[in-house]
Specification:
Elements: H1 2-10, H2 23-61, H3 65-72, E1 80-83, E2 85-87, E3 90-100, E4 103-107, E5 131-134, E6 141-142, E7 149-151, E8 154-160, H4 176-187, H5 202-215, E9 245-248, E10 253-257, E11 271-275, E12 279-284, E13 297-302, E14 307-316, E15 351-358, E16 369-378, E17 383-387, E18 392-393, E19 399-404, E20 410-421, E21 424-429, E22 440-444
Parallel strand pairs: 8-9
Antiparallel strand pairs: 1-22, 2-17, 3-12, 3-16, 4-11, 5-7, 6-10, 7-8, 10-11, 12-15, 13-14, 13-16, 14-15, 17-21, 18-19, 19-20, 19-22, 20-21
Length: 445
């Protein structure tokens, strides 16, 4: 009994071993039970941690009404500023225009003048004309009394004059065309007077002989088919055949066409000329009426050729409505396209702008549709400028800008406005107000 009591006192937690497993098996069982208890504790701790995190996340998602209102309130307005500049401003208007040759003149020889009576060539008067030489090229500028082409050994040339050469001019004849011939020969230094004004007499004949010597061709004489009849008193006298000479309203002229080939019989024009130089007509949007005025500078640009030229506005015409015969038009020419392929300006109404060229234009501009840049207003030098959005107009019609100081404070500065261009406006401080380049002005918020 005593032994039993000792055994109980020594290991109160032990129970009597059950029959079966050995002592090693007992240790294994105890280790497995301990591991299960540890796993249980870890599982409980993990669950507690997850619950804590979930609670924290839920707390973060929950907002008070005051916080929710604060979060949805519009942000505080920020001020957008721009710098005051110092520069030269120029307001420009850009439009399109067509370059043309102005008036054209074509020459078609119909007869060959005789020159044998004065010891010249052996041209049979009245023979069929044949183109024998081209002495100029398309695009050339030719002066008065310079041969353009040659037909059957005879020259074609021009003299200045507004009355067309409608007849052969013969000795003994008189008229305005004879007076025009005398004037043209005088400009060449070949006629010095001596005949009655407008009468083809001795002094005029000498001048005609000198003219053909300058041209380098035998002098045409009366007596052939070209000089028969008329007012000539005798055969074999110098005269001016209408088949060889043409009056041009302005000289020099420009060669714009040489339609016949050397060796061809002449059945039509052998040379086409442009008088008065190149002409440019611009198509101004009617909304700009009053902005473009006579005397303004024009910059002409051909994007196709890479050429530029300078001109000045000579006039701004009335509204043209292409194709509208009853509309207000400056001339019928302006209502049709310059190249004849359709209505001018694509059929859109426009104000025709005519220009006066400065210097000599490149003849390659003929027939080109070009860009015209017109300077409508400009400052003489550098001025203070601000963006258009910076200008404030009050109920009293006074204008001002709002200047932002380095410390963020704002104050208004009264200004007067001037030239505007490319989104900028010239400003001048009014009275004693101060505004300097580099100041920051409010343009929005």
């Amino acid at each position: 009994m005593a032994d039993l009591m000792k055994s109980a006192d020594a290991a109160p937690w032990q129970t009597a071993p059950e029959p079966g497993p050995t002592a090693g098996g007992d240790r294994t069982a105890r280790t497995s039970a301990l591991a299960r208890r540890r796993r249980g504790v870890l599982a409980v701790a993990s669950a507690a941690a997850l619950l804590s995190l979930g609670g924290l996340g839920g707390a973060m998602l929950v907002k008070s009404p005051a916080q929710a209102a604060a979060d949805t309130r519009a942000p505080k307005a920020s001020v957008i500023t721009a710098s005051v500049g110092s520069e030269r401003l120029a307001r420009t208007v850009v439009l399109r225009g067509d370059v043309t040759s102005g008036a054209t003149l074509s020459i078609t020889p119909t007869e060959v003048a005789d020159s044998r009576a004065l010891g010249g060539g052996t041209n049979p008067g009245g023979s069929s004309p044949v183109l024998t030489r081209k002495l100029a090229h398309v695009g050339d500028t030719v002066k008065a009394a310079e041969p353009l082409v040659e037909f059957s050994g005879r020259p074609v040339y021009v003299l200045p004059g507004r009355i067309p050469a409608y007849r052969d001019m013969l000795p003994g004849e008189s008229g305005d065309d004879i007076a025009q011939l005398q004037g043209a020969l005088a400009k060449l230094g070949l006629y010095h007077g001596g005949d009655k004004h407008g009468y083809f007499d001795t002094a005029t004949k000498k001048a005609v002989v000198a003219l053909y010597h300058r041209l380098g061709y035998p002098v045409p004489v009366t007596g052939g088919s070209a000089g028969k009849g008329g007012g000539s008193k005798a055969a074999g006298e110098p005269f001016v055949p209408s088949s060889e000479m043409a009056f041009a309203s302005s000289v020099p002229v420009r060669v714009v066409g040489l339609p016949a080939a050397v060796g061809d019989k002449v059945s039509g024009p052998v040379v086409s000329l442009a008088t008065g130089g190149l002409k440019l007509t611009g198509y101004l949007d009617p909304s700009y009426q009053g902005l473009v005025k006579e005397g303004m500078k024009v910059r002409i640009t051909s994007e196709t050729l890479g050429l530029t030229a300078s001109a000045g506005v000579s006039s701004v015409g009335e509204l043209v409505t292409p194709g509208d015969k009853t509309g207000s038009q400056t001339s019928g020419d302006n209502a049709s396209a310059q190249d004849g392929n359709g209505p001018a300006n694509g059929g859109v109404p426009y104000l025709p702008v005519q220009v006066t060229r400065i210097g000599t234009w490149d003849n390659r501009l003929d027939g080109q549709n070009v860009r015209m840049t017109i300077t409508a207003a400009a400052t003489t030098g550098a001025v203070l400028t601000v963006p258009e959005a910076a200008i404030n107009a009050g109920a009293d019609a006074r204008t001002s800008v709002t200047v932002v100081a380095p410390d963020g404070s704002q104050h208004r500065v009264r200004v007067t406005v001037g030239v505007s261009a490319d989104g900028k406006v010239q400003v001048t401080p009014a009275g004693t107000a101060r505004l300097r380049a580099g100041d920051r002005v409010v343009v929005g918020q």
